[in-house]
Each structure stands twice: as structure tokens, then as C-alpha cells.
Amino acid sequence: MDRPMGSELQDALSAFTKKHESLLKAREEMKTISVTARSKDGSVEATVGIGGEASALRFPNNKFKEMTGKALATSVLEALTRARSEATARATAILQAAGGTAPGEQGGSFLDRLDLDRLLDPKSFADALSPRRDEGKSRG
Questions:
Q1: What is the pTM (predicted TM-score) of this model?
Q2: 3-state SS, residue 133
Q3: How many CB atoms lie within 10 A of CB 80?
Q4: What is the pLDDT averaged over residues 100-129?
Q5: What does the alpha-carbon distance between residue 118 and residue 139 come to, in Å, rounded to a whole number?
Q6: Helices (H), strands (E): how many in the chain?
Q7: Of 27, 93, 111, 128, which has the highest C-beta tally within 10 A?
Q8: How far apart are CA 78 and CA 86, in angstroms?
Q9: For the segment 69-90, what is each residue's pLDDT rounded down to a tens digit?
Q10: 84 contacts 51 by C-beta, under 8 angstroms
Q11: Rounded CA separation 94/102 (Å)
Q12: Is the dihedral of CA 83, 84, 89, 94 positive or negative?
């Protein structure tokens, strides 16, 4: 026997709500990402957040004193690149575990192009679920 339309709609709304909560949790988890990486030569250590912004830059030994400016700059960029790459990998893993699709990933859908912050805003979500004020009035 076919299920009533309201039941299917309720199931879809329940699934959407679970996905929404999962993505909210993932967003909060991603905000805490902080990655520290060293350059191959060990002369530079860089820490970055999820947005790729550097929050710390350290020189764990005195090797930098013997380096040329160009070599030191290369080490700084290498440490930053490694840390950013790891931060991106962690964020992607969190998003995928929550059932989302990483930006630019194959198989992405229309939903992946939405503004995640706006979609996950509690007020926007509540507004989307509330009945329209003009419901029942004719349009024209």
C-alpha cells in the first residue's frame, strides 16, 4: 500500500533536519581546526587555521641564522603550504563525514553551491520551515 503524501514529506523533513544538524556540527568542528607543519629542512614551523590564515610562525632551531633570505623565504612558504594543505584535508574529511561534498568535488550538486553559512543559519532554517504568511491567499 502506498504511504500517505504527508508521511513522505515528514520523512523528507526529518532527513533534512538530521543533515542540517550534522552540517552545523561539522561547521563548528571545522572552526577549531589548527594545523602546525614544518618545512622539510626543519628550520620553520607554521600554524594555520581553517581559512589558511597564519596564526604562528616559529623557528625551532637557529638554522635560519645561516640561511640566505631566499632559502628562508622558501622554507616559510613550504611550511605554510604544508599546514594549509593539511587543514584543507581535515576540513574536507569533516565535511564528508557529515554527509557533505567538498567544494570542487566530482558529483557535486546544486546544494553544494549554496552558501553554507546562510543555509545553516538557525534563523534562516526556522524561516524556511515556518508557514508562509500569505498562505491561502490568491496570487495575482
A1: 0.64
A2: coil
A3: 19
A4: 58
A5: 28
A6: 4, 3
A7: 27
A8: 12
A9: 999 999 999 999 999 999 999 9
A10: no
A11: 10
A12: positive
